[in-house]
Amino acid sequence: MAIRAQNSFWRGLAPYILLSVVLIAGYVVSPVAKTVFSGLAIIGIPIHFVASLPSTMLDAMQGRLTSTDQLRREAELLRERNLILQTRLHRFEFLETENTRLRELLAAAPQAVEKVTLAALVAVNLERGSESVLVDKGSADGIAIGQAVIDAGGVVGQITKVSLFTSKVSLISQEDQAVPVQVARSGIRAVVYGGGANRPLRVMYLDRNADIRPDDVLITSGLGGRYPPGYPFAQVSSVQRNISEPFMTISATPLSRLGNDREVLILWPENQRTMSSRSSPQGPEADQ
Amino acid sequence: MIGLSPSPRRLWIPFATLIVALVLIVLPMQGLIKGFMPDWVSLVLIYWALAMPGRTPIAVGWFSGLLVDILTFGIPGAHALSKAVLVYISASLATRIRVFPIWQQSIVVILLAGVETVILILIGYLAGEIIAGLHLWTAAVVAGLVWPAVFYSLRQARRLTTLGSD
Questions:
Q1: Whose CA, among A63, A107, A145, B158, lies 20 to 30 Å from A179?
Q2: Do the domain assignments include residue A287?
Q3: CATH of the domain at A171
Q4: Longest Cα pair distance anywhere in chain B, in angstroms?
Q5: Whole-number Cα distances in Å, A236 to A202, A203, A220, B165
C-alpha cells in the first residue's frame, strides 16, 4: 500500500501475478489443464524448428564434405563391425531359442520382443536445473507418459510430458529419478538415483556386505514396472564402505550417452500381461 | 508499422529481438555449456524495460515468459510470473539504473537474474517439481558478464528505431 505513489504495482503488476498463480495452481491441481497446456506446445514448434536449423545444416554440410576415401574407410569399418555383431547375434539366437524352450518347460510366459520407435532429439536440457531432452515424437505417434527411452548404450530415461508432436524425456541423471536395478554379476537388487547434471548416479540402500564392486554392470530389474528388465543401465565407478553407516556409498556412471546422441529409441510397454494388477499409466492410450 | 513521420518507428524490432532470444533458449547445446547459458529472454526484456520504461508493457514480459514455459515444457505461468516481475522492477528503477556505468549495470543484472531464479525455485518447490543445481546461480552471474555485449548489440538494434533513449 505504501507504494501507492508508483501506482503501477496494483494496476500494473498484480493482475499478472494473479494470472500466473491461477495458471500454476490449475496446472498443479487439474489434469485437464495439463492436457490443454501440452496442446499449446504446438505454438513452440516453429521456434524449435528454427533452433534446430544450425545443427541440421551442419550435419548436411558434413555429409557434403566427406570425401569418398573417408566414406570407403567408414564402410569398411562398419562392415567389420557388422560381421562381429552378426556372429554374436548367432550365439544370441541360439541362447534365445534355448531360453524360450526352458521357459516353456517352466511354464512361464515367454519374453516378448519389444516394439521400439526411433525418435530424434529436438532440444537438450530444456530447463536449467532439470535434466531433460525433447524428442520429435508425441501423442500423435501414440507416445504416452511413462514409456522408457534407450539408446545404443543403455537406458536414457523416461517420457514425462507429452504434446502432440514432441515429448519430454527426463534423463536418469535427474535428481528425482529413481530406477530399480540389479547387479548383472551377482543379481543383487538396488535402487539408483540420479545425481544431477554432470554428476554420477547414486546407488542407494545396499548394506555393508552386499556383493558389489567397482566395474560391475547394473541392469534394469523391471521391478516397479516402468523400465523393462534386462537393459544395461550403469557401471559402478566407486564403492565406499563406512563402518559407521548402515549403507554403502556407491556411485555409478550411466552406460547410455544421456541424450548426447542425435537419436534415441522409445520402448513400447509389453502387453499388459505382467502388470495387469497395477493400473500404471503405461498403455499407449493412457493419457495424463 | 511505418508511421507518417519520415523516420519509421519500426515497432517490430523489439519483438524480433525477443524472438531471437527465445530461439537461443531452445538452441540444442552440449550439456555443460547449456548449464552456464543465461536466460536470454530476461536479458532482452531488461534491456527494453530500461531503454523505454514507460513503453514496455508488463504484458510483453508476461507473454514472453509464458512462451518460455511452453517451449521448455516447464510449469505454465512460472516464467511468465518471474518475467513480469522482472519487467516491473527494471522499469521502475530504469531512470536510476540507466545512469550507471556498464559494470554497475552488470551487477544489477546479476541481482535481477538472481531474483528471477529465486522466484522460479520457489514456484518449482510449491508445484512439486525439483529445480536445483549450482549452475542456476552461475547462469545468473554469466547473465551479468554478458550484459555489456547484450546492451551494445541491442542498442544498435534500438537505434534502427525511434524508440526510447539511452
A1: A107
A2: no
A3: 2.40.10.340
A4: 54
A5: 9, 8, 14, 59
Shortest Cα–Cα distance, B95 to chain A (Å): 13
Q: Which backbone phi and psi does A219 adopt, to 5 degrees?
A: -120, 160
Overall domain count for chain A: 3
CB contact set of A7 (below 8 Å; sequence gap of 6+): none
Q: Look up residue A1 and give its DSSP letter.
A: -
* Chain A from 13 to 72: CB within 8 A of any B CB: 13, 16-17, 19-24, 26-28, 33, 37, 40-41, 43-44, 47-48, 50-52, 54-55
Distance (Å, whole) CA A286 – CA B76: 22
Identify which of B77, B88, B124 has the shortest CB distance to residue A12. B88
The verdict on residue A283 lying in a domain is no
Q: Does some domain include residue A286?
A: no
Are A198 and B35 inside 8 Å of each other by CB?
yes
Cα nearest neighbour of A40 on chain B = B70
Residue of A90 and A288 predicted with greater confidence: A90
Residues A270, A287: Cα–Cα separation, whole Å: 17
Please check whether residues A133 and A262 belong to one and the same domain: yes
Residues of chain B with Cβ-Cβ distance to A28 below 8 Å are 126-128
Check CB contact under 8 Å for B136 and A129: yes
A39, part of any domain: yes
Query: C-alpha grid cell for residue A275?
Result: 502388470
DSSP A234-263: EEEEEEE--TTSSB-EEEEEESS-TT-SSE
Alpha helices in A151-257 (DSSP H): none
Which of B23, B27, B35 is the closest to A197 by Cβ?
A: B35
Over residues A129-176, the pLDDT tens digits come to: 678 888 888 888 889 888 999 888 889 999 988 888 888 899 998 888
Determine the residue among B22, B60, B73, B87 to mutate to test chain A binding: the one whose Cβ has the most chain A Cβ atoms within 10 Å: B73
Q: Which residue of A has its CA nearest to B34?
A: A125
If one compares A242 and A275, the residue with the highest pLDDT of the two is: A242
In chain A, pLDDT over 90 holds for what percent of residues? 17
Does the ipTM surpass 0.90?
A: no
CB contact (8 A) between residue B124 and residue A6? no
Q: Which domain holds residue A95?
A: 66-105
Q: Which tens digits make up the pLDDT trace of A201-249?
A: 999 888 888 889 999 999 998 888 888 888 889 999 999 888 888 888 8
Does one domain contain both A199 and A60? no
Rounded to a whole number of angstroms, the distance from the CA of A78 to the nearest CA of chain B is 27
Q: Which three cell numbers stand for residue A113?
A: 520382443
